[in-house]
């Protein structure tokens, strides 16, 4: 026994040194195509990076409060935070098998049996029949720990832990993606509500002006300089403008109610907006270099984290082809008397090694390995799609920003011209020197241009929000702390 123990120790140590062997492909980061520049980028844009609180550049205290609630109280964000906690728990569970599993046991057994017998005894009175009962009592006590350890000879357990670590990293990136999407949706919904408020104000203003003109036409009718047809035409215009107002109010209120889900409030807790897009500022933002975009997009980082996880799954599936080696050992005390349980003579030891290998599984392991590789190919395609989508989002947002900026300038000029024509027409109607058809045309043109301007202004705000979102909202992959891997922490 004295010589056998060192040999066994050296054998176990050798096996543990070899337990770091790995099989299967190692992860290699993909290299997507990256454009040299954005075609729609304006060289005059400020080169300042996107701030993490980008919404404050619009200058709306109401928006600031909504965005703060969206970042912390949104149901989607809270669910994403819970998914991070789930992934961290799975990571701890995946790494648990890298260390021995230790358990302890204590037991006490007692049994009693009675054996009856018969016999013939000789006495003063002659032969007599006798019976005997023999009671046997047995007691046993045991106490001690046991250890079980599966050697990670082929790196299967390590691969499982790395897959879980990459999944935990994915959950962190996914949380950032959910937060960014929620913030962008909150800003978009708020701006849309303000745009309906502006369109509502345009409609109410034009309704007032149209009613004033209607009064002037009725006055002309009384003196004989206008006809019933002139009055009916103006009344039809007034009725159309009045009928459009409830619909605009309905759309505005629906947008306000939609904010409730985004910011985690009840609809009754959301106030009707009193502001207007015309009082807000439009901050400048530059797209930067395309080569830095992928590191600022949490959705692209999420796609790569899934690739990393699946690459580890491939290694785990490959390791399943090889034998599993398990070491078990136990030590403790066992005695038939409690008072002698902890005596040296009651010590006992037990050690065993076991190797298991699948001989025939009808191709099951091979199919699982092929499935893991095919899943990796699918995720690789998804990653390249996410990368292309990131550049497309920036390019699309830049085009929208450029075109809506130009369109708003042109539409403002159209409104100024239409307003001047409407003012002249109104004065001539009141003076009785203009026909009603011309006055109606100027009114309709002004109302249409003002309503279009409000919609174009909204499109410009939404284009800027989309640009912020496309650029990652000030996020960077370096801002996310990697998951804690306390056991055999390695590079993913």
Report on the architecture of this protein.
With 492 residues, this protein is α+β, with helices and mostly antiparallel strands. The protein has a single domain, classed as Up-down Bundle (Outer membrane efflux proteins (OEP)), CATH 1.20.1600.10. 57% of the residues lie in helices and 14% in strands. It contains eight helices and four strands. Strands 1-2-3-4 form a four-stranded antiparallel beta sheet, with no helix packed on it. A hairpin with a 2-residue loop joins strand 1 and strand 2. Helix 3 runs antiparallel to helix 4, helix 4 packs antiparallel against helix 5 and helix 6 packs antiparallel against helix 7. The longest helix has 68 residues. The protein starts with a helix and ends in a 22-residue tail after the last helix.
